[in-house]
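pasting for ref
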Amino acid sequence: MSFKPTLSAQLSQRLVLTPQLRQRIEMLQMTKLELSDLVTQQLVENPVLEELAPEEVSIPADVANVDYAEVPAAQLNGAAEMPENPLSSFESFDRNENAYNQTESFPESGDYTASSAGESVDFAQATGETREGEVGERDSFQEIDFGQTFEEYLDPGYKTRENETGGEDKPSFEQFLSSETNLAEYLNWQLRLTITSPEVQEAAEAIIGNLTDDGFLDSSLEEIAQLGEWPMETVEKALEIVQQLDPTGVGARNLQECLLLQLNYHGYGNRLAARMIRDCFHKLQHHKWPEVAKELGATVEQVSEEMKLIRQLEPKPGRKYAPPSTHYIEPEVYIEKFDDDYIIRFNDDGLPQLRINRQYRQMMENKETSKETRDYIKDRFRSAVDLLKNIEHRKQTIYKVCERIVERQHDFLDKGVEYIKPMMLKDISEDIGMHLSTVSRVVNGKYAHTPQGVIELRRFFTEGMTNDDGEEVSTRIIKLKIKKMIEAEDPREPMTDDQIAAILAKEGQKLSRRTVAKYRDQMKIAGSRERRQVV
């Protein structure tokens, strides 16, 4: 059987994401900090872009959605008063959206205005045209007094011999910097002070390297032995040494072993508490204290007294040295109330204000500039314009979503969480005429500063159920009621899920026992048996 190469034509349709569209999608799901990093990176990579100095920003941040095509150039340069705040107008968004769809090709001339923060950016400067009466800027570099102002920050080779003489050798600032010691570094430092054989020490270092942030060993001794081909006796000896280090309980393979290590260290290895953990650990986790007392031949009062000692132990011995999981939150927008209305104001602090450098426009129009240089500048111009368009589109989309959220959750903003209304992502997508995935990208990971605190936009969206009066009630309100009921219950006789469901039914909210249990699990609240306390 032989194969012969042939040529054939085939017609097909497929969706191709352009770099501009891909950047637009990525920017929608970026947080404010991520957007700031992207803009800073573009400033480094694209020479056509430049950052506007703070004193040159003439338009305040609360006019972020001005339709720049209708603003005179004199206003953009700070030569006239700005129009009224257009934030309350929804028409500017439609005009900007239509303008974007009609300006896909690269402009050869004209004025363009956009901003990384939605503020004043003068694209007219990119044309290189000089207005009448305009005076060239004075080179500020010549006004710097390097001998006095920047003497401390310059290379020593710049200083004069007089300045170098008479100075004393002082330790550098870096020698005063310190970093927090993590768990592995702290354990290895103790291990080096322990007298043992090199083989056991290497196995102990392998064990320390496999500890979790909480101080538990999540690998088996067989896996540790295979790392260095050590005999099992060596690995067991190494584990014994690690478990004797500080903090007490480190190196345990489970919580039960961790608690026993701490009791043995404090001399309580033969106490009733150790027997409770060693022989009845599962029953202790489920608060079955009468069964524990019966099995160990003790009274319930003795078990209760020993539980006070067990509660003083550390269930996560490495927690003190675990690296802090810092999550920086910066509000994307401020939702502020003025009179009876809410105003949406963007948080533009820290975002670089962008504009296009006019010198590159002059270079592109200069006949002496080579074709390769002009093509490169033209490509960079396209990239800069796309970036500014996408930044403005991101702001408009966020504003549209926040505007609809404010309209639907007006009572929540006024009165608190008990008045939040059921709202789905599809409700907002239908209101603003955008796809559901677009709304999901906008609300994910972005926060708003509201009268009720800093809230993630996604938390405004909750499911709901209809009560006996025909009103829709948010499931978040039902969860809040369940939590309050459990907090007010008698710890000796905690409420069951059936009892909670019966109380909610009397209030007009009929839920099954399984639904109550599901909501309770989502709030990480234990069942009635685990919550029961013997006093």
